[in-house]
Amino acid sequence: MKYDYDLFVIGAGSGGVRAARIASLAGARVAVAEEYRIGGTCVIRGCVPKKLLVYGSEFAQAFADAAGFGWTVTGAHFDWPTLRDNVQKEVTRLSGLYTSNLYKAGVTPFEERAEVVDAHTVRLLKSGSQPTAERILIATGGAPQLPEGLPGVELGITSNEAFLLKELPKRILIVGGGYVALEFANIFHNLGAATRIVHRGDRMLRGFDDDLRAHLHIESERAGIELTMNATLTKLERAGGALRATLSTGDHVDADQVLFAIGRHPNTRGLGLEHAGVKVDKDGAVVVDEYSQSSLPSIYAIGDVTNRVNLTPVAIRDGHAFADTVYNKRPTAVDHRSVPSAVFGRPPIGTVGLGEGDARLSHGEVDIYRTNFRPMRNILAGNQERTLMKLVVDAKTDRLLGVHIAGEDAPEMIQLAAVAVKAGITKQQWDSTVALHPTAAEELVLLREKVQGPLSPA
Ligand SMILES: Cc1cc2nc3c(=O)[nH]c(=O)nc-3n(C[C@H](O)[C@H](O)[C@H](O)COP(=O)(O)OP(=O)(O)OC[C@H]3O[C@@H](n4cnc5c(N)ncnc54)[C@H](O)[C@@H]3O)c2cc1C
Questions:
Q1: For residue 381, how many other CB atoms are within 10 A of its CB?
Q2: How far apart are CA 258 and CA 237, in angstroms?
Q3: Atom 49 in ligand 1: which residue has the minimum CA distance?
Q4: Does residue 162 contact residue 320 with C-beta atoms inside 8 Å?
Q5: DSSP letter string over 271-327?
Q6: Can you give the pTM of this predicted structure?
Q7: DSSP string, 349-383
Q8: Residue 13 in 3-state DSSP?
Q9: pLDDT digit string (tens) for 44-65?
Q10: Beta carbon of 15 within 6 Å of any ligand 1 atom
Q11: I need a surface site. Which of 20, 35, 309, 373 has the fewest CB within 10 A?
Q12: Interval 314-360: pLDDT, tens
């Protein structure tokens, strides 16, 4: 044999594990290296533990809502170590499953860091060995970014550490305006921490539909999260037993924890890619073609490290498509359009397809259908949270271009709406679906009036 392996995968996250398993089951000799814990960001310190914390944090609202339905909840008490440790137990269980699935598929795992030496060689840092492979797959994901040059930056944490905090902070300052910032703000706020988001933009959730962004801004403030927009941190320091952040506005904010959620960068630093001749872009993402092949033909890259659509199901698709293309002789390119996504805030968001602004840019004239209401459940509960639903339709073809929901169960609804958007159905076909009563989702198929202009606060 010319090489030690047919395929060497660097990174055992969502994409790497899928690619390794499918390639191995197709008959390839596969190894995978993981420098932290098998399972990757999603399983260890992303989607899964985050969603479990969201579930845990939502009891607070449920207890508050219960009174309107006749319940008296007394003595409710939250214990952070219990939730944190139970979440970590589940993470460990899942990581074990991922590991055993690799073994079952015949993949050789190395639990150590790997770097690229050349087109067919990797270096394993702990053992110092240099196995060779016909192909190398870069599946190293992304890592949290920190504000460059901020004095005291080392006093803050990122989402990586947020899952493992010894104590629940009484006050937390979250820096950033993306979905990770908003989700952690809701988790900590619901669990009882005084929570403030500081964001350099004038609205959170850049890239999402503007009405959704406006709605989330209103609802987050209504829920009691303090929002400081158009501001950054200029200094972080210890003050007594806490931290003091100085803002670009000159204000000071005291907190027990400062969490930086200002974005993620592709995990290619020190990986040896440029040295081996693999092209990376200005952000460090590996440049690949539609089959995930890099500028060096024996090296491929999938998932977050390519910075295409940074979501777990996409990384898994990328990994599977790579293995099908190369080892199952079924060339498969992943379509990265109309991928649904969620933000588990209050209210949660589910969104798919084009937002109104992007749709106008790419399609010209669009019709907008929108409703903003207080769902039935919230009336009895005395809960003021409102739901927003919005459809973006191509005025020329009547095709549905985007569905955007902020409301209870929006992530669950959007998965099915995504089928319709992906299939390219028309608004007329959408409307021909009979409503399901009584649900909030029925409002989606009852939207008949076109609206104009941005959402105004209700
Ligand atoms: C807080 C948070 C919440 C998220 N929530 C969601 C969500 O709700 N839904 C969703 O779809 N996505 C979510 N994501 C994004 C999702 O986690 C990623 O899109 C997904 O994990 C990408 O998979 P991947 O295989 O590309 O990389 P990863 O899962 O990041 O795996 C890469 C692996 O490579 C390892 N590695 C890196 N360099 C090396 C090296 N040199 N040698 C060996 N190993 C290495 C890393 O340790 C890591 O385990 C979330 C992310 C975060 C941070």
A1: 19
A2: 11
A3: 40
A4: no
A5: S-HHHHT--B-TTSPBP--TT-B-SSTTEEE-GGGG-SS-SHHHHHHHHHHHHHHHH
A6: 0.97
A7: EEEEE--HHHHHHHHSSEEEEEEEE--HHHHHHT-
A8: coil
A9: 999 999 999 999 999 999 999 9
A10: yes
A11: 373
A12: 999 999 999 999 999 999 999 999 999 999 999 999 999 999 999 99
Pairing assessment for the beta strands 142-144 and 171-175 based on DSSP bridges = unpaired
Q: Do 296 and 277 form a contact (C-beta atoms < 8 A)?
A: yes
Residues 6+ apart with CB under 8 A from 70: none
Q: Is the CB of 50 under 6 A from ligand 1?
A: yes
Do 369 and 447 form a contact (C-beta atoms < 8 A)?
Answer: yes
Tokens of 294: 């890099």
Handedness of CA 276, 270, 311, 351 (dihedral sign): negative
Closest residue to atom 35 of ligand 1, CA basis: 11
C-beta of 35 in contact with ligand 1 (< 6 A): yes
In testing the pocket of ligand 1, which one of 35, 42, 259, 351 has its CB within 8 Å of the most ligand atoms?
A: 42
CA-CA distance, 131 to 118, in Å (whole number)?
Answer: 11
**Closest ligand 1 atom to the C-alpha of 302?**
26
Q: Are 445 and 400 in contact (CB under 8 A)?
A: no
Does any ligand 1 atom lie closer than 6 A to the CB of residue 311? yes
For residue 433, the 8-state DSSP code is S
Centre of ligand 1 from the C-alpha of residue 75, in Å: 39
Look at the chain and count its residues. Answer: 458
Cβ proximity of 347 and 410 under 8 Å: yes
- Residue that has been written with the tokens 């950033």 in this structure: 176
Active-site annotation holds for 437:
yes
Residues 400-429 have pLDDT tens digits of: 999 999 999 999 999 999 999 999 999 999
In this structure, the residue with its CA closest to atom 6 of ligand 1 is 47
Residue-wise DSSP of 267-286: S-TTS-HHHHT--B-TTSPB
Residue 258: enclosing H or E segment and its boundaries? strand 257-260
Choosing from 120, 217, 265, 437, the catalytic residue is: 437
Q: At what angle do helices 356-363 and 210-223 cross, to 10 degrees?
A: 170
